Amino acid sequence: MAEENPIVLPENYSLEESGRTIGGRTKLQYDNIEQAFPVVEPGLKPFGSRVLVQKRTPRTVTEGGIIVPMESQETEFWNTQVAKVIALGPGAFKNRDTLETWPEGDWCQEGAIVRVPKYGGDRWFVTLPGATSMRMGVDQACFVIYNDLDMIGEITCDPMEVIAYL
Q1: What is the bridge-based pairing of β-strands 82-88 and 25-26?
Q2: In the chain, is it the N or the C terminus that has fewer CB atoms within a 10 Å radius of its CB?
Q3: 36, 135, 1, 153: CA torsion to nearest 10
Q4: Is the pTM value of this prediction over 0.70?
Q5: What are the extents of the domains in the chain?
Q6: What span, in angstroms and rounded, lies between the C-alpha atoms of 97 and 104?
Q7: Which CATH superfamily includes the segment(s) 2-11+21-154?
Q8: How does pLDDT run across 137-157, given as a tens digit for each residue?
């Protein structure tokens, strides 16, 4: 299922954007977007008006090559609100009585990068291929199911620049 959903990025998005810091904080560098959202089968297809997303995996090294401490990786993981839409239930973004698409259309499509609620949803983890340990969010992909009305919005900037704040 995950291979069918290409990542949809804004037209002005570039992995090679310059700048090592954002708001005085070190930018977490990913070699490619798939590193932030590794391709792995979630093992579930959403029912009804549910939306299945994969949360962004925290980086273990900064752009400058500094190893990020485990505590910081865990903080980034539990506070991130950046996710990739993996699948939509058949009733997502539709009138609940008639199942007709809303007049404004779907709020997001499979492959879109979105902002999701920090709390809530049904979460589970899937171990990444080649993982050497079982660290949540680092060696495991986190999938969450939300109701379609819980989606906050589509991210239109570089999704790697969105940093979790406490």
Answers
A1: unpaired
A2: C
A3: -50
A4: yes
A5: 2-11+21-154
A6: 17
A7: GroES chaperonin (2.30.33.40)
A8: 568 889 999 999 999 999 888
